[in-house]
Amino acid sequence: MKQQQNTRKGCTGFRKMSRRDALQAGVFGAMGLSLGDMLRLEAAGSDAFTQASGTKKEAKALSVIQLHLPGGFQQQEAFDPKPEAPVEIRGSFGVTKTKTGDVLSDNFPETAKIADKVTILRSLVGRVPDHGLATYHLFTGYPKTAVIDYPQMASIVSHELGKRGELPPYVAIPNKHSFSGGTGFISSAFGPFELGSDPGARGYQVRDFSIPNNVTTDRFQRRLSAREIIEQRLREQQVDPNTLETMDDFYKQAQTLLTSSQAQAAFKLDEESEATFQLYGRDVVGLKGPDNRYHPKGLAERLIVARRLVESGVRFVTVNYGSWDCHVDVQKNTLDQMPALDHAIAGLVSDLDQRGMLDSTIFWVTSEFGRTPKVNRDGGRDHHARCYSNLIAGGGFTRGQFYGSSDATGAEPGRDALLLEDLLFTIYHQLGIDANKELLAFGTRPIEIIKDGKLVEGLLS
């Protein structure tokens, strides 16, 4: 078998991923939608109906912020260092002690200071070390198959819990991950609102977030009236009512985002203080870029917007940061990206705690898998799914815990192996969703939200 070429940018499968077009819970041509758009919605938006089964649970958390580190995050240089292992395993970094007496890599001094507020998961078990397949599994809880397309966790949360205010229940910053799947067999109405713009970049402006300059208020209202007339005629012609309801939801959501100053304010950074930006590490940089300059990473701004969104009622926010596919020179990859990550994690946890939001917000740091215990001949680490690390905080999860452990080299779980399905099941539980509940795919086929998952009580306070 031909081996994939190793480069600093990552393996071929990771470099070549392309963004899938997703239906936006936003504006289509300033409230104009073509028949083609409607037909695509009809084709893509098959509804799922809830079975009678499923136990009503008390929600411990209202929202989730998922910070995803695509490419496969190196746990040895982060949450699970191996200081007693040989150098080819432990790598080139030392450790820093936490308030709990445990250690993190010395790349995480700020996170070490707030370790008493989070849980480090050191024994997570995945299924396959492939970027696309592992990312899909992480976001849906199911292996990818050619038979059924499963919905993302955030879409399930949107479907089960609905909106909590004016904003969409599911927002992706800056966009959803291209390997993460979509809404699967549930309606496209439960897909993400994608910003289409990076809050950490110059000229940040949410895509399709304002009425075009050439459209006056009167003209905008006339378009709304025209849409209502067309929709009424479609109903009279007995067009699928589920499709029309989905379209109506898109329109109402778009109109809210265009006309509500409160909704628009949630996406902005103008009201944030300089102290908050510093808390999240806005000015923290890594290595010099190709232009021989240091560049802020933008993660601070992304997480501040995420916090503002859950504060305003958004149920689930996904944030992507970095490129961690370090087959070559893991040390360089670490030094470039981890300083900003360390500050941002500590900043968000501290900010949520200070605002009284940590108990009601789950903050979850994920990657599709980890890296191999042994550094390869190119100074990098390769894909490894059998044992890796996550971080989780808030929402009723324990504080100050290092859950599970890997063995002496980090190759396999040494204690309390944590299946990904069980972790997702437990997060659903904290949100008040019974993950044993069945949804009907294609109108007749019952499918559990998480198949054979179980509650991990050792993670909960």
From TrEMBL:
Q: Which domain of life is it from?
A: Bacteria
**Pfam families referenced in this protein's UniProt entry, alphabetically:** DUF1501
List the protein's name.
Answer: Sulfatase
